[in-house]
Amino acid sequence: MSDCAIDCDKCFTCGGECCKSVAIKLEDPVDIDDYEDFKWYVFHPGLSVYLDTDDEWHVDVPIKCKHLGRNGKCKVYDDRPPVCRDYDVRECDEGDDSKVTLSTPEEVDSYIRKLKRAGKL
User: What pTM, to 2 d.p., does this model score?
Assistant: First the structure.
């Protein structure tokens, strides 16, 4: 029996949302040029940049894991890699964990203007 049977009912209810994209951590932006660089990511259709609740910036790449079954369950659960094994389903909130999400160049520009008004740039 897989160890999933122990505590992952929650995992089965969301359809594997955490397996439908890859979040890549970015270095913290320190100046306007760093924020302007966010545009490069969002120029690519489907990508977004977000600030999570831990104040870390990420680029979100919406791409489904090839082992996520049509039923929302992992097809290789017992042989999944460490990054998947280390994920604690009890900490999954199934929701958006972002404070800021930027998906278009206009949203990046608007965010930069907001930072300037607040004296943060």
Answer: 0.81
Report phi then psi at 68, rounded to 5.
-85, 115
* In the chain, domain spans: 4-117
Return the amino acid letter for 3: D
What pLDDT score does 60 carry?
96
103 in Cβ contact with 30 (< 8 Å): no
Query: Which is nearest to 108 in space by CA: 58, 25, 45, 50?
Result: 50
Please give the Cα distance from 38 to 106 (Å, whole number).
11
pLDDT beneath 70: ranges in the chain: 1-12, 90-96
d(Cα 60, Cα 22) in Å, to the nearest integer? 6
DSSP 8-state assignment for residue 14? H
